[in-house]
Amino acid sequence: MSAATESQDRSQDGSQRRLNVGLIGAGNISGxxxxxxxxxxxxxxxxxxxxxxxxxxxxAEAGGAQGMSVEELLASPEVEAVINLTIxxxxxxxxxxxxxxxxxxxxxxxxxxxVAQGQQMLAAAETAGVVMGSAPDTVLGTGVQTARAxxxxxxxxxxxxxxxxxxxxxHESWHPNPDxxxxxxxxxxxxxxxxxxxxxxTLLGPVASVIGASSALRTEREIGSGPxxxxxxxxxxxxxxTGALIHESGAISTLVMSFDGxxxxxPPIEVHGTEGSMAVxxxxxxxxxxLLARDRTGWQPVETAGGYVQAGRGYGLADLLWSGAFDxxxxxxxxxxxxxxxVLEVMAGVLTAAETGASVAISSRADRPSAxxxxxx
Length: 377
Known about the structure:
Layout: H1 3-13, E1 19-24, H2 30-39, E2 43-49, H3 53-62, E3 66-68, H4 70-75, E4 81-84, H5 91-100, E5 104-107, H6 115-128, E6 132-134, H7 142-152, E7 159-167, H8 187-204, E8 207-215, E9 220-222, E10 232-234, E11 240-247, E12 252-258, E13 269-273, E14 277-280, E15 291-293, E16 300-301, H9 315-323, H10 337-356, E17 360-361
Parallel strand pairs: 1-2, 1-4, 2-3, 4-5, 5-6, 7-12
Antiparallel strand pairs: 7-13, 8-11, 8-17, 9-10, 11-12, 13-14, 14-15, 15-16
Helix pairs in contact: 5-6, 6-10, 8-10
């Protein structure tokens, strides 16, 4: 039995194993993780850490856990795995410290701030024999997984191409401190791209090479809310990126990630094949309607056919647990760090290609994750 098949079978059967979890980083996204941790009995939150200890205690109280320092959490023999919700530039440092402490790690997207840091994280986890997982896990929900089931069932024939589109006016209209989004390491691709690229790989497989183009035609932004409303921000990273992803299968995906529009009516993702086309719902969400067009009758809804029905943030870690990754084989499960690194390298490659005007080969390899059967959890 292959690892992918074993992972899928174990996921269907479930697991009685309970995992003691520590959470590092008590920012806004932690609340969404708490909803999952409070609901899934298989994930037992025992500690929350943050540089702001008061904030850590507040989040911990909401999760029935203990607030503590990062050092205390990593030293705790009770903690088996760490959910790393720190800011991207701290992903590597925090993950490496957790790995050195013998903990498994599940890190928010993007996997790391740089490809080199991501490679270091993956190598350290492999050497230590611990689990290294990565968000996003929205692809495990019924939206993308129903689309995956349709592709696997041949409903669009052989996949030829895909188009992924994310166009907004930027985050400065609502975010009180949006500086990061317009600095190196920010921008629409690294911010939102992981959802789209991970979905494209889930549907069409890993990427062999990329090309890209980018612009930053607006040199400053104005904060629209909070105490800094009206303040101008300089833009020092591309705010509109277009890329072409050449998958190992030969399919080509076009990627448009932009903070330079107002809105878009384009489907978040469209996939076209020899026998049909498919519209995929927003990959930043776990559910949504999949539409299929095979003839002149137009778009028809597809019955939900895959994915975790109740999925929320943190299901990537749960899937690793249910798949057996914490029972001796850290490579089992879908939300693997190898996939997170591959997604990061694809995005970094698009940005490099945009700067140089040359095609960029992707050196990392990640298997197309096994499909998630329709699962009531």
